[in-house]
Amino acid sequence: MHEDAAGREVSWTVHGLRALFVRGDIDGFFGLFIDNLLQLMLIAVLCPLVCGLPQELVIGRILPGAALSILFGNIFYAWQARRLMLQTGRTDVTALPYGINTPSCFAYIFLIMGPVYQETQDPTLAWQVGLLACLLSGVMETVGAFVGDWLRRHTPRAALLTALAGVAITFLAVGFVFQIFAHPLIAVVPMMMILTAYASRRTFPGGLPGGLVAVLTGVVLAWGLRLLGIPVFEPPAEQYVLALHMPTPVPSDLFALLTSQRGWQYLAIIFPMGLFNVIGSLQNLESAEAAGDRYETKPSLVANGVGTLLAALFGSPFPTTIYIGHPAWKAMGARVGYSMINGVVIWLLCLIGGMTVVLHIVPIEATLGILLWIGIIMTAQAFQAVPQSHALAVAFGLIPALATWALQLIETSLRKAGASLFDIAPKFGGELYIHGVIALSQGFLLSAMILAAILVFIIERQFLSAAAWLLVAAALSFVGVIHAYELTPVGVQNAFGFAAAPEFAFTYGLSAGLLAIFHLTQNQADAARQPVSGPP
Prior knowledge:
The protein is built from 21 helices and 8 strands. It has helices spanning 24-51, 55-88, 102-120, 123-153, 157-182, 184-200, 210-227, 251-254, 261-264, 267-290, 297-313, 326-332, 337-351, 368-384, 391-397, 399-416, 421-428, 434-441, 444-459, 463-479, 502-529; strands at 2-3, 9-10, 13-14, 17-18, 98-100, 320-322, 485-488, 491-494.
């Protein structure tokens, strides 16, 4: 499809197939492409550095496998959006964004594959453990598809949206705006161009998309200043040779540790990450519905799980997921084509080993305005798409993500100073309640959703429902899914097991009892206010 002079979307036929591209798909493609590219670059840099994986394994196996899973998901969600268009007769449907799960990517590198390599110095073993983790995550995501609709129906919208808003305002918006203002000469102007184009919904002269113009402007600024001797951009020193790398199934490596304790000992990390992936996908589906596009839960989550299983089978230890940011891409004017273009381009770049070449030309700072935009629009949506009285619950639900972000800043600062949180934590005292920060950060997506849901039901005076959510919090605390941790010399570690966080389990349970009493006294008060009927 394209836009005519009046701004209406017009379709045409190419080779007998219905083409579904609008001008906004170019902006949407750049946003999703940069997001996917960032994940793949992190994998290319961190896997050899942290996990000892040889470059040929990363470039020849992992990245082609990841690209295949990304291509599969992008094509499926584009087809799903096209199907919704036909069912509703609407032309403004936007496909769900999709790519590698960022939290799982970091968790698997630093908490699973990295420790295995440090202990054994065996990169193949580290990779095989990562593949098993990805396989188990894919199984969880697929199974989650059959209970996801029930969770979605029984969870307040504020609870589903606030966890996403917390991630958006911290790890996307604030995290990247720091990087932008650290490189103002090449990043601020592209950022302002992106904000202008997307917030005002104005196109640039000649109808050029804002995202494209902004990135090109950043490239020109970076290389122009570099030619003038101002060191604002330094291309990577490594040279990459382009070669064909076809994805190849690796069933022997995938199932090598299926019966070994080595792989299953990391279930304490794999389980919550898989659970968070299911919940995050549900939250993103709710976010898409709030923006006007309601997708069926079961097929959306099944495709998500199949994409992760496909990644594992073809050598990538990194789960995929439905991405945060659907409303942002919708606001850009993206529809179906942006998803298909992204899948194909990522696929081709990984096949030829060329995706890192892009960063020899394009400074990453010139692209971060797109991610900043996604972060602020997702945060705004969490407040706008719920009843006004539920905004309190959204604000309450932001706190766990803020705690997680604060903990990351603290740990990074200490590590750069040559210290560790294990040694310094006792010195904080009452000036920084570090143990409260850590407790809130553990399972923060779940605790954000639970805290927001509790407050929604309290606002609505549905005290029994609020008590039920408190009991859920008590149960999850008791087994260590939320709030439980161990502070060790190597950092904060999850603590799963019987009575993992008993203090939280007890206090949540006690609070549930109090709310149950409120429910009973409210019923008695309501009954007392009823008029007494007398004889006629």
